Amino acid sequence: MPFVHIELIEGRSKEQKENLVKEVTEAVVRNTGAAGENVHVILQEMQASDYAQNGIFKG
Hints:
Low-confidence stretches: none
Shape: elongated
Strand order of the largest sheet: 1-2
Strand content: 25-35%
């Protein structure tokens, strides 16, 4: 039962997220042999102001 966690900066449309989840699920099925109904994809969105890289906030 694969779980895929994806963290994103907010701002993508519902359609973009639906396409991402569909394609990630297909990739996991193709590469692990797991059944699609057993693949769990968790999207976690954050504000740009809550994200820093190399000690510098991006938002």
